[in-house]
Design a protein that fits this description.
Layout (H helix, E strand, L loop, with lengths): L6 E3 L4 H9 L5 E4 L5 H6 L7 E4 L9 E4 L2 E5 L4 H6 L3 H4 L1 H7 L5 H4 L4 H7 L5 H8 L3 E6 L2 E6 H4 E3 L2 E2 L6 E8 L6 E7 L9 E9 L5 E9 L6 E2 L1 H7 L6 H14 L10 H20 L1
Parallel strand pairs: 1-3, 2-3
Antiparallel strand pairs: 4-5, 5-10, 6-7, 6-10, 8-9, 11-12, 12-13, 13-14
Helix pairs in contact: 10-11, 11-12
Bound molecules: flavin-adenine dinucleotide (FAD).
């Protein structure tokens, strides 16, 4: 299907892009990789007057790694993450999760900013942002603001972004070398959106007790979520089969996923418990 007619602009600066968005009172949309937006236009789920293409904003394409963590520019593509060997050490959870995103062709164009702004509840990058307490850098007519992932995702395909705002960077806090982690998801076919997925990490104190457990889940709510009750089961305890069973059971009880054509909610809840159990075993190995 052909998209509706739209005007097209390709600004050279973020300020110019913001000003173009602001000029249309909500009738302009950013286009980044186009992998979610173009299908939405084709299906008439969106019909903006103007598309503001970010492709010339080269500075948004950088992956910056420093002592304070990993900063992903909004134009960083999945294939850029895959091919950046530094991330295997600097953020192995991110590197692993992105391997599950879509297919080769889509990974060549799809971007971090597009995925996070699109806010699909089953998408990997929003799940990682939520699990890792990412900070979003957002630029709009009113200036620059930083927002925590927990406040950024507000519902299915919904975020706190205003009509004249552009997400420019996702900042993942520093990753200690000894951190334990795992990412697991289940999809019917490789490259499909996950039916459900679990991202987790934790540190160990001098007594091998779990501290700072973070567990995120995708595909089980209207947005990516943290499984805080299961995290509380883990914190302060040493890993054991009994603890893994208790955390998995708590995860299952604490969520109420919606049913759809792909799976009933109860199946998704059971899936999360299974993925969490496997992830915890893997992280401890
Ligand atoms: C067949 C298929 C399978 C897929 N499977 C997966 C999958 O398994 N996992 C997964 O995570 N994704 C999957 N995707 C989605 C893919 O990862 C997209 O690339 C991604 O969701 C959107 O990124 P984009 O750069 O293409 O954004 P676009 O399509 O260009 O934009 C998406 C939305 O975000 C807005 N936007 C884009 N960039 C910004 C910005 N910087 N600031 C503000 N708003 C912005 C746009 O206005 C639009 O509303 C799949 C897509 C397809 C077509």
């Amino acid at each position: 299907m052909k998209p509706p007619i739209f005007e097209y602009a390709s600004p050279l600066t973020v300020a110019e892009a913001v000003s173009l968005l602001a000029s249309r009172n909500g009738n302009a949309k950013v286009i980044s990789g186009g992998q979610s937006l173009m299908p939405m236009l084709a299906f008439r789920l969106a019909a903006p007057e103007l598309l503001v293409d970010l492709k010339h904003l080269k500075d948004l394409g950088a992956i910056r790694i420093g002592e304070d963590g990993v900063r992903l520019g909004a134009r960083v593509r999945w294939c850029d993450i895959e091919s950046d060997a530094r991330l295997a050490v600097s953020h192995p959870l991110l590197a692993e999760a992105i391997k599950h995103v879509a297919h080769y062709q889509i990974r060549n164009r799809g971007t971090v900013g597009g995925s996070v702004a699109h806010a699909d509840p089953s998408a990997e990058m929003p799940g990682i942002a939520m699990t890792c307490d990412a900070q979003m850098k957002i630029v709009g007519s009113a200036g620059t603001r930083i927002e925590a992932a927990a406040d950024f995702f507000t519902g299915p395909l919904q975020t706190s972004l205003e009509q004249d705002e552009i997400l420019t960077e996702v900042h993942l806090p520093a990753w200690p070398a000894a951190r334990r982690w795992a990412f697991l998801e289940f999809a019917r076919r490789k490259g499909d959106f996950a039916m459900a997925g679990v991202a987790l990490y934790y540190d160990l104190d001098s007594g091998s007790r779990i501290t700072d457990a973070h567990i995120g889940a995708i595909g089980v709510a209207d947005r990516p979520i943290r499984l805080t009750e299961a995290e509380a089961v883990l914190n302060g305890n040493q890993m054991s089969d009994k603890l893994i069973a208790a955390a998995s059971a708590k995860a299952r009880q604490s969520i109420d996923p919606p049913s759809d054509i792909h799976a009933p909610g109860a199946y998704r809840a059971a899936l999360v418990a299974t993925l969490l159990g496997r992830g915890l075993k893997k992280s401890a190995a």
